[in-house]
Recover the amino acids of this structure.
């Protein structure tokens, strides 16, 4: 049975929250429609089960709010409550609520406003009382991607999030066989007043299901490329500085953990693979008969916008509803789909670590040399995967291969091309022959500069 690794640092790392943009919310106690039993003991730390709404929307619909809480904006329909904190396996998480109203006018070119909402429900502005054109997040009933109401969440999505969260280790609800997740805590129904009012607002197509909210835990609001105010792709120097303030790990160690967690995210199919059972995907449609396997694959989600970066560099995947089970009839299909999954997602991982490395080189006044960077990765990748429960690396000529041993497919090894070098330099070969962290750190110091690989903080 898989046991999550012990924290690699002393104490608890705080959540990484940068460029905090206030987005106040009102709230009241609510009943959970569904919940994650692995996090039942954490409910008190997040203030219990509550719904949260934008103040002006709540006032317009007459929702019985019991108070107001400070929150910070996170993408379009989410907000983070930094005071509501849970610690999991050495990392601090904060409460994130998905479905607190859209900030964007879906068919406009600006923010959502009360005037837009009034026009949607056919209510003219009163003479002498014009509604403000300032941003006013709103919950609507417009269908979004077929699975939720725009500005809220939907049960098809939350059921998927909870199903994936249930695969985590009881010892660490954020760890699915090395794949780090932002676990779903509970699903909350909107108050009746809010649900009825939201049903009056749509542009073209209405969502038939109930509008709900998802309570989840996140360690950060820093994304890989977009979807947040700060990302490794757009703001690499700011990310280097922000993570160094919270983690004493040197930059090279933070990149190692980004690589380790990123490779796990690109191989989630093998990490969740299990023998198919009666009633699994495809059985009811007669698509598969006899043995087969079921694992998780990405749909409409990507690492660049749907994963966040913790202070130690670890990537945690946030939008779990976009991972869906796929049924594969033969081992050959497992190999094929896993290679495709890695091919679709590895670019975002390598882009993030390359941007961070490039920023470090820029601070040293050095240009990016791809030959050096390839050699550095050739040493770092095997080190990053030393403790991985299912993955190893192997050189074959000038190519570094990723070897996956899915626990649900005993005896099979899935091979994925990982990195190619023009030659197999002796320096890289030495790094792969039992090199330790300090040895790799010394090599990195030669490329990044000793000052840049030093962290700070506690």
């Amino acid at each position: 049975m898989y046991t999550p690794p012990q924290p690699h640092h002393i104490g608890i790392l705080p959540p990484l929250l940068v460029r905090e943009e206030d987005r106040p919310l009102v709230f009241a106690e609510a009943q959970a429609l569904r919940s994650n039993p692995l996090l039942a003991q954490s409910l008190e730390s997040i203030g219990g089960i509550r719904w949260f709404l934008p103040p002006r929307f709540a006032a317009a619909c007459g929702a019985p709010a019991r108070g107001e809480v400070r929150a910070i904006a996170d993408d379009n329909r989410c907000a983070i409550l930094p005071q509501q904190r849970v610690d999991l396996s050495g990392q601090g998480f904060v409460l994130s609520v998905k479905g607190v109203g859209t900030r964007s006018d879906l068919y406009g070119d600006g923010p959502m406003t009360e005037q837009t909402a009034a026009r949607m429900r056919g209510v003219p502005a009163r003479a002498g009382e014009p509604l403000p054109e300032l941003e006013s997040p709103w919950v609507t009933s417009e269908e979004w991607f077929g699975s939720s109401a725009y500005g809220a969440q939907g049960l098809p999505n939350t059921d998927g999030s909870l199903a994936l969260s249930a695969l985590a280790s009881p010892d660490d609800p954020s760890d699915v066989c090395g794949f780090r997740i932002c676990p779903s805590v509970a699903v909350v129904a909107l108050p009746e007043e809010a649900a009825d009012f939201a049903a009056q607002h749509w542009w073209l197509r209405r969502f038939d299901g109930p509008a709900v909210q998802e309570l989840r835990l996140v360690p950060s609001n820093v994304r890989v490329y977009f979807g947040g105010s700060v990302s490794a792709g757009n703001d690499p120097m700011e990310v280097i500085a922000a993570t160094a303030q919270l983690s004493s790990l040197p930059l090279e160690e933070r990149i190692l953990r980004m690589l380790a967690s990123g490779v796990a995210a690109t191989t989630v199919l093998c990490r969740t693979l299990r023998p198919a059972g009666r009633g699994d995907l495809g059985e009811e449609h007669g698509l598969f008969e006899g043995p087969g396997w079921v694992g998780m694959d990405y749909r409409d989600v990507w690492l660049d916008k749907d994963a966040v970066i913790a202070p130690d560099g670890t990537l945690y995947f946030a939008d779990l509803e976009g991972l869906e089970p796929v049924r594969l009839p033969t081992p050959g299909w497992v190999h094929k789909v896993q290679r495709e999954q890695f091919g679709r997602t590895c670019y975002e991982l390598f882009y993030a670590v390359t941007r961070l490395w490039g920023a470090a080189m820029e601070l040293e006044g050095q240009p990016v040399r791809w030959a050096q960077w390839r050699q550095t990765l050739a040493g770092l990748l095997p080190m990053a995967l030393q403790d991985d429960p299912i993955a190893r690396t192997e050189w074959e000529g000038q190519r570094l291969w990723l070897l996956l041993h899915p626990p649900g497919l005993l005896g099979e090894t899935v091979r994925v091309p990982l990195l190619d070098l023009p030659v197999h330099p002796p320096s890289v070969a030495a790094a792969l022959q039992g090199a330790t962290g300090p040895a790799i750190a010394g090599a990195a110091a030669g490329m990044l500069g000793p000052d840049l690989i030093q962290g700070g903080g506690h």
